[in-house]
Predict the 3D structure of the following.
Amino acid sequence: MTTITTHEAKTHLSRYLAEVEKGQEFIIARGKSAVAMLVPMKKPKQKPRPKVGECIGAIIEIPASAFAPLTDDELKEWGL
């Protein structure tokens, strides 16, 4: 791990970021005291997107009775 000063980090930030993207790590020091680390970020795992029409949750079972016609009493309740 390479140690750089805050002045170097400020002056050459783009260069150091390019190195960090390649996996290099840096310690940033103020004087002789280390104050920070410049390290690559871990990329979050992305969930795969579902394919079109693919179920992503529990499958809902719809009973056949849900499609049965309404009785006369039920029609009266709905005002039909």
Remarks:
- The mean pLDDT is 91.
- The helical segments are 6-11, 13-21, 72-77.
- The domain at 2-38 is CATH 3.40.1620 (YefM-like fold).
